[in-house]
Amino acid sequence: MKLRQGTFSFLPDLTDAEIHTQVQYCIDNGWAVSVEYTDDPHPRNTYWEMWGHPMFDNPDAAAVVFEVNECRKQFGDYYIRVIAFDSSHGWESIKLSFIVNRPKEEPGFHVSREEVKGRSMRYSIKSYATDKPEGRRY
Amino acid sequence: MTKDSILEEKKIVNKIDLHAELIETGVEQVLIDLDKSLIGLEPVKTRIRETAALLLVEKAREKLGLAHETPTLHMSFSGNPGTGKTTVALRMAELLHKLGYVRKGHLVTVTRDDLVGQYIGHTAPKTKEVLKKAMGGVLFIDEAYYLYRPENERDYGQEAIEILLQVMENNRDDLVVILAGYKNRMNTFFESNPGFRSRIAHHIEFPDYSTSELLDIGSAMLDQLNYCLTKSAKNAFTEYINLRKEQPHFANARSIRNALDRVRLRQANRLFKENDGPVDAEKLSTLEEVDIRESRVFSGGIDN
What we know:
The structure holds two protein chains of two kinds.
Chain A: H1 16-28, E1 32-38, E2 49-55, H2 62-74, E3 79-86, E4 93-101, E5 109-115, E6 121-127
Antiparallel strand pairs in A: 1-2, 1-3, 3-4, 5-6
Chain B: H1 3-10, H2 18-24, H3 27-37, H4 42-64, E1 75-79, H5 85-99, E2 107-110, H6 112-115, H7 123-134, E3 138-142, H8 157-170, E4 176-181, H9 183-192, H10 194-199, E5 202-206, H11 211-224, E6 228-229, H12 231-246, H13 252-274, H14 281-285, E7 286-287, H15 289-293
Parallel strand pairs in B: 1-4, 1-5, 2-3, 3-4, 6-7
Helix pairs in contact in B: 3-4, 3-5, 4-5, 7-8, 11-12, 11-13
C-alpha cells in the first residue's frame, strides 16, 4: 500500500528534476529546507530523524537534491521526505513537506478494533512493518 | 545520420543569429562593462571573450540539435597579488549566469580555512557544506595551493582535494570552480595534483600592470572617491609607482589603493596644518604634489 503523506503523494513519485524545481520554489520563498528519514510510517509520527542540518544558506536547490541522494545511499529502504520551514512571524511552521523516497515493499497498516464500554468501538492503526525492530523493518 | 537529416528532424530552429544571441542574453553588456571597468589585462579579456564565444556557440549547437557536450568550465587564475583575480571571478560568475551555465550566478569565496577541518572527520562535512553553498554558482578558492601540504602527510588538505575533485567531476552542471593564486606556486600545486590539472580546462594568466596602467587605475579609484590629482602630483605619482614597483611586496592595484589612502591621509593633515580660512570643495578634493612626495618611498623606505 503506497503511503499517502504530505504534498504530491497522490502523484507518481517525483523525479530528481521535479524535486529540484519544488525545492527551488521553497528556497526562493525564503523557507529553510531540510531532509528527514524514518522507517516508522505511522501518520502520527511527526518528528522524523534529521539528515544533517536544515539548509539555511544554500541559494540553489542542487544542494538539497545532492543531500537527498546521499541519504538514499544510506537509507534507500526508508521513507525520506523534504520539508520546508517558514520562519516568518505568524507562520513559524512547515509550509511544504513531501516524500522523495520510499521502501520497495510497503506492507500497509493493520486496523485494530477494541470494544469498550457500551459496545462502542475504538480504532487504531499500526503499520505491519513496525512489528520488526527499528532498522530491520524494510 | 547526416547533418541535414538531423536538422530536418528537429525543425524547431534552423538558423541562429549569434550576434543577436550575444545581445539578447546580456553577455555583450557584461563584456563591454568588463572592457570599460578593468584597465589593462588584455590577455585575460581575450580569454574571457573566447570562452564566452565558445559557450554561445555550444548553446546554439544545442538548439540546432547538433552533438554538444557541456564544456568543462573549471578555471584557474594565476597571477601576482593585486592583479584583479577576484574581480574577474565575480564578473565570470555573472557572465556564466547570463549564458545559462550556472543557475544563480553567485560567487562564494573561500580559502583553505573554510575547506579544511582541524581534526579527523571534520574536513569532509566542512568541504561539503561549502560546496553545497556554492552550487548553482561559482566557487572561488583563493590561494588554492595551501590545500596541499606535502611536508605533512597527515594534513587534512588532501581529503578536501579529493572531495573537491569528486564534486567537480560529478556535479559539473551544478557549480564552476575557480582556483586562484600566484603563478609559480600554482604550477607546483598542479604538478603534484595531476587530477586538478586535467579537470581544469581554462588556465588564465594575469599579467602585472604597467606603470601607465597603474596610473589609470589610481585615477579611476580617485574618480570614484571624488578626488583629483594636480598635474605635478600626477608626475610625482608616476615616479612613486616606478620606485614602488622595484620594492619587495609590491601588490599591483592593491598597493596603489593603499598608497592613495595614505596620500589622502596626508592631504587631510596638510589642510589642518595650513589652516588658512574656510576650505571649499575643490580644495578638499585636490591632492597636491607634496602629499605624494612625503612618502617614505622617495627616501628609500618601504611602503606597504
